[in-house]
Structure formats: C-alpha cells, structure tokens
Amino acid sequence: MNADWHAWAPIDPSAFFPFLIAVALIELTPGPNMGYLAALSAAQGRVAGFRAVLGVTLGLAAYMLLAVFGVAELIATAPLVYGALRWSGVLFLLYLALEAWRGAGETSPGHARPADDAPFWRGLIANLLNPKAAVFYVTLLPGFIAEDHAPFWVQALVLGCVHLIVSFLVHTTIVLGAARLGAVAAAPARAILLRRAMAVAIVLIALWLAWETRAA
C-alpha cells in the first residue's frame, strides 16, 4: 500500500515535509515582503495589508509559473536581466518610501485618500521586481523534484502551491500583528509619526535588498 502510494503521488512524499519546513523558514526570515507588509499594515491597517498580501502572492505565483516553463532560470542566471530587476526593485521601494513620507498628512481632514487597490498593485510590483523570488524557484525547488514521479512541471506546480499557501499564511499573520500594533497609535499625531517611520523602514528594506542581492 505504501509502495503504491509512493509511486502514485505526483511528488516524492518523503520530500514534502522537508520542503514545507524549508519554505516556512524562508518566509519567516526577515525580507522585503515581510518588512513592507508590516510597515504598511501598521500605518494603514489590515485591509490595506490584506490587499498587499494578495499582490505579493500573485507576484510569487507569476514566478512559480515562470519556473515551470524555465523562464525563472533565465532571469536568475542572466546578469543583465537580474541586474535590471534588482535595481528596478530597489528604486520602486525608494519610490514607495518617498510616497509614504509625503503622505504622512493623509490623516488630516479633507486629504484625498489613496486608491483602495493601490496596496495590491504596489505589493504585486514590488514582488515582481524582487529577483530573489526567481532565485528561490531556480535554486531550491529543483532539489525537491524526483525523477521517478510526475513530470517536472506538475511537481513544480504542486510544490509551488505549497509555497504560496505557506507564504500567504505567514504574510497574513504579519498583517494582523502589525495592524494591531498600528491601532495603538491611531491618534493623528501618532499616525503621522508612524507613516514617517514606515517610510524610513522601506528605505532600509530597499538598502537591504540592494546589499542582499549584490552577489547573486
């Protein structure tokens, strides 16, 4: 029975839990997504945070599909493409930081609020411009692909979906925690200070991304 299940399973069952642990540890490691979601949720609340989570998840799904068709490997191994993504991601984060700093007065009466879907698009773009997502699928995923199971693309989809679920759960937890913390600073003066802190945090995230991806 166990032998039949092992042969029928699309992925190697013995590789599932090691992969689950690996992606959980990766997602729990501080990085651009975690920092941006925490800063955004603390400053704008959990609704904005959840929208950003959807954008980040969709960005990861895009890289997963690119990995299935071999495009992610091209991105991760082509210096010009990788470099363009890397610096575009850094510049986009700096743009978000500038926008957050300038928007610190959004809590004042009569100030126009950003579009409701803005956090979604920002989360999506920030993740698409993060080359570490491509590197993840190129370097980690193949190590859990078994030759004696389903075709590569099927196994990549299954494992990729596991990663998306873990990522979504971790990011949702971050949003809830950061939003609760931000609610403590709901007074206008504190809200402005929190937005400024968010801007500084995003700048630090951009610098971290530039440093972390320099030798990849």
Task: Give a written overview of the molecule.
With 216 residues, the chain is mainly α. It has one domain (31-212). The chain has 10 helices and no strands. Helix 3 (32-44) packs antiparallel against helix 4 (46-68) and helix 5 (71-77) packs across helix 8. It starts with a helix and ends with a helix.
Q: Segments where pLDDT lies below 50 for 5+ residues?
A: 106-113
Compute the separation of the termini in Å: 44 Å
| Mean pLDDT over the residues | 78
What structural class do the secondary elements suggest? mainly alpha
State the shape.
Answer: globular
Question: Helical region count?
Answer: 10
Order of helices and strands: HHHHHHHHHH
Cα gyration radius (Å)? 19 Å
The fraction of residues assigned to DSSP E strands is under 5%
Number of strands: 0
Domain count: the total is 1
Tell me roughly what share of residues is in helical segments.
over 70%
Q: What composes the largest sheet?
A: none
